[in-house]
Amino acid sequence: MRTPTETHPVPEHVAAALDELTRALPAGRLLTDPDVLSSYRTDRAPDLRAGTPAAVVRVRSTGEVQQVMRAATRHRVPVVPRGAGAGLHGGSNAVDDGIVLSMEAMTSILDVDPADRLCEVEPGIMNLALKEELAVDGLWYAPDPASMAFCSIGGNVATNAGGLCCLKYGVTRDWVAGLEVVLADGRVIETGSRTIKSVAGYDLTSLIVGSEGTLGVVTRARLRIRPLPPPASTLVAFFGDLGDAGRAVVEICEGEPPALLEIMDASTIRAVEEWQRMDLDTDAAALLLMRSDVAVDRSGHVAAMEEICARHGATFVARTDDPDEGEAFLQARRLALPAVERHGVALLEDVGVPRSQVPALLASTGRIAEHRGTEIYSYGHAGDGNMHPTLRWDHDDADGKARAMQAFDDILEAALALGGTVTGEHGVGLLKEQWLPREIGADAMDVQQAIKDALDPAGILNPGKMALRLR
Amino acid sequence: MRTPTETHPVPEHVAAALDELTRALPAGRLLTDPDVLSSYRTDRAPDLRAGTPAAVVRVRSTGEVQQVMRAATRHRVPVVPRGAGAGLHGGSNAVDDGIVLSMEAMTSILDVDPADRLCEVEPGIMNLALKEELAVDGLWYAPDPASMAFCSIGGNVATNAGGLCCLKYGVTRDWVAGLEVVLADGRVIETGSRTIKSVAGYDLTSLIVGSEGTLGVVTRARLRIRPLPPPASTLVAFFGDLGDAGRAVVEICEGEPPALLEIMDASTIRAVEEWQRMDLDTDAAALLLMRSDVAVDRSGHVAAMEEICARHGATFVARTDDPDEGEAFLQARRLALPAVERHGVALLEDVGVPRSQVPALLASTGRIAEHRGTEIYSYGHAGDGNMHPTLRWDHDDADGKARAMQAFDDILEAALALGGTVTGEHGVGLLKEQWLPREIGADAMDVQQAIKDALDPAGILNPGKMALRLR
Q1: Reported ipTM
Q2: For residue range A385-403, what is the model confidence (pLDDT) as tens digits?
Q3: B295 FRET partner, CA 20 to 30 A, in A133, A135, A254, A300?
């Protein structure tokens, strides 16, 4: 891969495409400044391959996306669609001499329809910005990745992003009613329906959601919305033993689903507390964060969770019905990754296991950390079995990095052995390219490849991602 | 199309495939008796084209399905997968000289895992049989097509079947965690995961669900289950005006979702009452059936619905917390189709509109009945905007049939004009083949065709369905 500082002539066919686009697009859309190109090379995942694009195109309309894709098809130029660059798996890393198709300027809310509980947005709008706009009218779009302040709806759609509340409310796919998609050759299709149910043809919406920009470019999303849930009660419980916390998770989820159920282990608690002074118990082995937003008889739901935590040996349990106080606890959880990142390179896992296997995964992760002599910060969406054990090494510690990478593989192995998945919500991108075939098998990979080839015969859309072959 | 009584030599390549299968499969699997062949020609939709198969193969294992598909691929013989034949859109109608691949003997429940809320079943098991087995352990698989006593899980998966409770609990796709699928060439893949969330690759599960046997043969389904909901309260309300009932539907759905919300119009009420004597008010213009299974403070939810019905002019409102009594009211709704069928040929629509447009659809349907001079029985899942206006004509009334068919088209036109869909839960099959392209457009049809060709390059899987081209 080239670095942006190497001087390198843009190949002729790419230059031809850029010339065409320069003429066709309004001024300022097509950027080739080396500093700009450099800043669009990677997402937030450390240490994955990334090329240097020939251009970044910051589109402002579906028509402009069509022009880019037509030119790219004509000249066989790779196109990497990109949202806010908040990905954690290299899914939007650039490729050499390709075009980065940035959707960040397309941020409009096109329609809000409270009667049919739908809204239509452009893909560049930030998840949190949409939530805030909707909240003004008492409406809600549920999916809430921890990165919601700086991740876009388009990126959420591309990765089928999860979050904290998806335990009760589902993931991005459950909230997408339909999409406008520009195909590789520049044609536009609309998927889905305005109705609650439709079986009119193959479910192209679900296919595009989670396809990481390899099948088409999402230029508009019709999202389901609903009234804001009632104010939530938040429950925090500290445990002296990580296994106890894991077992409490399993039992809590046997009842009425909490609106979220997060876990942080000792090292994560300490990393956050050290940074932010939130009065977390740094002697605890685990912290569980739970929420209930069941309006009627809310206390009963929270009391049941309290009782389970106590019975599983919680050393401290506290409940708050104050939204700000509850939000502060959640903030502790959202700070987990930046807290670890302060001390070196942080590489997040994103494994999922069947919920009953959460205690086993926590135990495995501990053994792996010890065996590999590496630091692992375990936290995540315990309630749906989706954990983000995070590996840390010093910036200049090659040996530490090597040990961390071994631990990374060990955790994936452990998750698969427990009947799990190698990615619960971040996606395959580049980070899991060796692992996707191991999880789904060669024949299912063939099917994925066949679909990719059918929708993108020239192989220009985000090439080399999701363990798909280059053409 | 041939009729089964015509003598017709089986074409040579088909005979070769059947010879192979006769040798390879256990005795009794491959059936060629003309009466048997005749009984597998159609599903429950009246008057659609149906061929006469060369053989019916009643498989008993995934391995046997693989053998059928390998032989079919080798000899280019069309294969129509078939569940219980309960479809309403011709999706499993046979094709001449093809194989009907009957899954009806594969009825096992392979696993029930209450901890992770999953079960695994073979596709031939009836929906209701599965429900009854699970209920013994207090567990529940939600989707409940009106035909649940005689429709199979495999058929439900093939059509992404809905039902009454999907207003609150979602459709079949929401309850399928993964599938075992035999591909056109006989290879087997597993889709999905045992975890709650996974983004490992394209969502093949959602693609196969609703693909009507055109992309692969489902040989095992991993379904989500949950604890049985608490006992429900059932509310019935009669209205003197159909529009009032429609407006009540819209307002009820603005609050906490009911567990079901069904509507029957005057002619449907009368058809059911005439047949079964259930003390329904035959002077009413509409009947709404509602259910709440919110356990805590259940009365509040039901009372809110009662109040809305009263405010919209309901002439009679009654509530029962007695499960048997509640079930009797539901039975009235489930009898709608057979009640109409007693008096001639009944052709169900399956249109969906955005919920806010339910009153408009009801009004349009009334105008269409009048304009075309035909009988339309309107009933359906009003709460999710999925209506089944049913056209009736006398068996020997060619003119009545012609008028009904015009009304059929008018209703589809009206649904599309209201932002709706031509099929909410029954599927495209043959019945909607002219309408699918009108709803989704030529470019989205091209995408569907490309996916079909990618997964079934020889075009042998349920050819000619879902508006896909024959190869």
Answers
A1: 0.96
A2: 999 999 999 999 999 999 9
A3: A135
